[in-house]
Amino acid sequence: MFGQSYFQLISPLIFLVFSLGFALLWHYARYIRALRLFSLSYFLGACAMMGDFLRNAMDPVVAIYIINPLYVATSVTFCAGLFTFYRGGVPWRALAAQSAVILLALSWFKFVQEDIVIRTMVMNAGAAVMLGYAAIELRRDMHRLVDRILQAFVLIYSFHMILRTLVVLWYEHQTLTEANYADSVAALSLYFALSIAALALAGILFVMFGMEIVSNLTRTSWTDPLTGALNRRGLDARVAALPTEMPGTAAHAVVLADIDRFKKINDQYGHEAGDRVITQFARILTCAAREGDFIVRWGGEEFMVVMPGADVAMARLFAETVRAGFEAQRHDGITDVAVTASFGVAAWPASRPIADSAHLADRALYRAKRGGRNRVCVQGESDLHSAAVA
Description:
The protein folds into 2 domains: 2-221; 232-385, Alpha-Beta Plaits. Helix 2 runs antiparallel to helix 3, helix 4 (92-112) runs antiparallel to helix 5 (116-137) and helix 10 packs across helix 11 (312-328). By secondary structure, the protein is α+β, with helices and mostly antiparallel strands. It is built from 12 helices and 5 strands.
């Protein structure tokens, strides 16, 4: 009995340790909302298993309506954590409906047709179905290897949960009673299975969240906080990731864009207005860009757009689209200053450093500024071929 009790106390301790671990992660990574739900799930699991340990000290009816709802809540919050992480929202109605079915069935087989064997089966199978539902429902959202491992483990555990319960109940269904349930094979095998699953799932989840935190830190170090565009470190990383040769294309294209007379906007309307103008310009650039293009904040009000696989004609069309869209944009509080932008376009041969093409695009941008601003100039073409609006 001492050995059994000791094991039963180890299980809720495992759950409690992981609950604290998830809570600590959430403290430092609050943008991952799912961490709160996994912390709550493991805490509820610890409470449920502690309740099972104290079951013999409770009235049987009280035990049923304290311990079993805690186990159901553990499954619900775990599934909610999965849905929050992968979809950002939780199908609370579906989870509540499954919970209601489990609790109603428990009540039926307690007060209408007393049968502890079926109650045990309902509880275990109900939790397994709930976990399996989440894993199957989220299959299209789980793309990485770690996601697939998590999905496979949840499905395997759900199947094992049902199979184990069937085998154990077949073995001891004639001897299982309310009085001996706490020390039964059914209960002890449940504790053992839950402890192993808790360890494995927590390990997978910690790896998954560690990857998410590292990815977020990388994104943060690569991007400009005001606009969300890449910074120069991000540009270097993206350029390094591009293939050295792209089939069917001889070069890429680079566009340098600069907001006209930006200093006047800052001086006349303040830096907050200037920041709003920069943010709107970055948004227009992003909306006009193709999938695979990347936007870089090159300087204060200057941006670079790298267009892999594009020729200068395509890059000029992109620049013209942005120029016209930005010229038509209205800015709060800025009424007597025309807010426009100028653009320089250059080819980027795949065999040459991007810095060479950035220099050529900068020369084209200088021509656009000198030629009257609010225009697009292409390196190597005369001003006659540059799209301009005087």
